[in-house]
Amino acid sequence: MNIHKLDKFAKSLIKEAAGKIRASFTTELIIETKSEANDLVTNIDKETEQFFIQQIKQNFPEHRILGEEGFGDDIEDLSGYVWILDPIDGTMNFIHQKKNFAISLGIFKDGEGLLGYVYDVMADDLLSAAQGEGAFFNDQRIPRVEQANVEQSIISMNASWVVPNKYIEHEGMIELLRKVRGTRSYGSAAIEILYVVTGRLDAYISMRLSPWDIAGGMVVAKEVGAIVTTLANEPINLLTQNTFIVSKPDLHHEVVTNYVKLK
Ligand code: IPD
Ligand code: CA
Ligand code: CA
Ligand code: CA
C-alpha cells in the first residue's frame, strides 16, 4: 500500500465530508440523545460516518473501520488496516455553537499509526501527519514542541474534573489550576490535541476519551514530540476508553507525577 496515495485519498474524503457538514447548516438538524441527556448525536454525525465508510469500503474493501456512530466494523483487534474515525468531534459545539468541531481520523496498520488527521471544519484548518514524515498544519511543517513548566503553561481540561468525580482526586486538579498561567476548555478533544500540537496549548487532560476522539491526533502528536499517555502514564489502548493527557514532555512528567492522583 502506497502511504502517499492513501494520504491523498483520506484528505480528499475529509474535505468532501466537511463541505457536506458545512452545507448542512441550511437544513434542519435531527438531534437525538445517546447514553444520557447531554450525549448528543445528529443525522449529520451519522451521515458523515456513513459517507466515509461507503467510500473507504469501495476503494479499500479489505480495510476495517472503527467509527463512533457504529456503522463500521466490530473491531476487537487492530490487525491489518484499521481506520479510526470520529465524523464530528464536538457534536455539542456543532449543534449549539456552530464552530469548534472537527473530523478526527487515524489510519493504523497492525496497531501502528500510519496517518493522522484533525480537521477543524469551520476554521478550515487541517492538522495532518504521516508516520516518520513530520506533522503539518495546512501546508506548513510544524516544529517539534518546546518544553514548558507548569507555571508558564496553558492547560486545557473540562471543568468536570475540578469538582468531585469518580476518576481523580479533584484537589490535585485544583492545585494544578492554581499553579498554571491559564486554563481553557474548547469542547472537542480533537481540537484540543490540535492546539497542543501547534503550540496554542501546552497540555490537554481528560478522564475519559474513546479511541475515535484521539486516534487521529495521537499520530500527529508523536511526529512533533508531544507525549500522549493515560493519566497513569501508560500507553493508550485504542480498543477501550482511556484517561488521557497530551503534553509537552517536561510538563507531562510534572503533571502526571505531582498532580494526578487517580482513584
Ligand atoms: C466529545 C468531545 C468532548 C469530550 C467528550 C467527547 P463527541 O466527543 O471530544 O470534548 O469531552 O468526552 O465524547 O461526542 O462530541 O464526538
Ligand atoms: Ca458523541
Ligand atoms: Ca468525539
Ligand atoms: Ca463524535
UniProtKB/TrEMBL annotation:
Keywords: Hydrolase, Magnesium, Metal-binding. One of its GO terms (molecular function) is inositol monophosphate 1-phosphatase activity. Signal peptide: none annotated. Gene3D superfamilies: 3.40.190.80, Fructose-1,6-Bisphosphatase, subunit A, domain 1. InterPro entries: Inositol_monoP_metal-BS (IPR020583), Inositol_monophosphatase-like (IPR000760), Inositol_monophosphatase_CS (IPR020550). It comes from Psychrobacillus soli. It catalyses: a myo-inositol phosphate + H2O = myo-inositol + phosphate. This is inositol-phosphate phosphatase. The keyword Ubl conjugation does not apply. It is an enzyme of class 3 (hydrolase). Its EC number is 3.1.3.25. Mg(2+) binds at residues 68, 86, 88-89, 213. Pfam families: Inositol_P. One of its GO terms (biological process) is phosphatidylinositol phosphate biosynthetic process. Its cofactor is Mg(2+).
